[in-house]
Amino acid sequence: MQLSEYLIEKRQLINKQLQLFVRDYTVPGRLQDSIMYSIEAGGKRLRPVLLLATAKAFGASEEKVLGVASALEMVHTYSLIHDDLPAMDDDDMRRGLPTNHKRFDEATAILAGDALLALSSQVIAEDAHLNDRERVFLISELTKASGARGMVEGQMQDMLSENTQVSLEVLESIHRNKTGQLLKFSIMAGAYLGNASEEALSEMKEMAEALGLIFQIQDDILDVTGDSEVIGKPAGSDEGNHKSTYPQLLGLEGAIDQKERYVQIALQALTKAGVEQTRLAELIQYLSTRDH
Amino acid sequence: MQLSEYLIEKRQLINKQLQLFVRDYTVPGRLQDSIMYSIEAGGKRLRPVLLLATAKAFGASEEKVLGVASALEMVHTYSLIHDDLPAMDDDDMRRGLPTNHKRFDEATAILAGDALLALSSQVIAEDAHLNDRERVFLISELTKASGARGMVEGQMQDMLSENTQVSLEVLESIHRNKTGQLLKFSIMAGAYLGNASEEALSEMKEMAEALGLIFQIQDDILDVTGDSEVIGKPAGSDEGNHKSTYPQLLGLEGAIDQKERYVQIALQALTKAGVEQTRLAELIQYLSTRDH
């Protein structure tokens, strides 16, 4: 199967599971409509796809990991809803559709995000395909990645750094928290559920950290070189928002070189972990060269 | 020990544990300051006190349940931070201090609430005094009580019912979700960790549901009869906000009678569960007659 077909198949699988969860765990009404709206607004489902691909590489069944993959996407979706709010990034559009607070209202969007965050822990705690040890480990890791030492702290740092010139070191620290930790969870959860060895887990951690940076550098590059229609937001918006970016700190060529270095690190880690002949190698290349 | 001394002692215990958790699970900076501000703004710590008292009544050690009690208060604190936001109840003051978004800003307040919600699951998942079965059960129950079939749905319904006249049935359904489920968790978690029998759990559930309604009716009564200085918000604010209340639907006398009926139900359930000679009986009376 081509990667493009694989991505479509897995997205559909995840979308279906997410819709089932939202229907099962909410009651009809405005809150459910608002949650479902953002869940159905789609997106690449990158994090759950990475989790599924890693789990498969280490031999875990899709059935076993689909609930955790969905919980992970719930956390990502809640973070987008809250980040789009007027008090945060103040975005009116997301993935070609009005953002949640534009379609509903701010209060509803805040509550929809809160509900998705609570739900992410609940579906793992109640996942019949996992044992208690796995549930506890995954909830601990997911809340750590998304909380006050992870994603939320990264978003805070990102907002505080607007309109200031930050160093490459600070920029990487922000991205590691804001987007890196959740991407890392997708890889580590998949490897954990596939009972990867200690050595393999350590290599996959290195791969996951490189992947987070590849993802972010490509995001910044696209903001300079991308087509607004394709990336789904105005190109050049980072500059307009006075955000520090890799191309700004390293030049466009320097940013591309840096990204290539991380691609090599990620691929080598895959080899050392013994899973180089899997979708993961293709996914690293895909993330490094994606046009949106 | 008098109840008043008991309440002070337990509040101090909980406050200390909450501060430790926030310091351990966050990094210095604006997000930590904002979380700590709302945690230190105090409050009655009613939910964790009820959990501690119930656990004690059924023989669980304080050490075993203090982490869960703190997680519960984190959920309550996050909900207050988000409820106070301009898009929600738009409150400038809480417990005699500026609300989180007034002291910091809206973005920080949203993130502080998000972080506390994630942290509530994390501290249970990582609580060394619990086994995996207990952790999973408590996370499942707490997220259920606080999520899209619990507190968040209650807040949504409450906002939708503003400026409309609702029936007693709808009013009780809103309160059951908005405040009742978290109060119920405090009782049920304590009884569960004390290894209460199935029969006792069933009685305690009835007690907890009555307690939630006692709490809400007294809240509504205080809004009519209370002293603004003592209750910490303007008396009569429900009427100003066009909220349906018990005194409005039943008259003041009728509301007091209704509350008394629930007090009797709660006390009888305590007796049937075999824990009538405990702090819980005093706490029911206290909640029914509190002046703030």
TrEMBL record, chains A, B:
This is Farnesyl diphosphate synthase. PANTHER family: FARNESYL DIPHOSPHATE SYNTHASE (PTHR43281:SF1). GO terms for biological process: terpenoid biosynthetic process. The keyword Transferase applies. Belongs to the FPP/GGPP synthase family. Its EC number is 2.5.1.10. It comes from the Bacteria. InterPro entries: Isoprenoid_synthase_dom_sf (IPR008949), Polyprenyl_synt (IPR000092), Polyprenyl_synt_CS (IPR033749), Prenyl_diphosphate_synthase (IPR053378). Keywords: Isoprene biosynthesis, Magnesium, Metal-binding, Transferase. GO terms for molecular function: (2E,6E)-farnesyl diphosphate synthase activity; metal ion binding. One of its GO terms (cellular component) is cytoplasm. It catalyses: isopentenyl diphosphate + (2E)-geranyl diphosphate = (2E,6E)-farnesyl diphosphate + diphosphate. Its cofactor is Mg(2+).
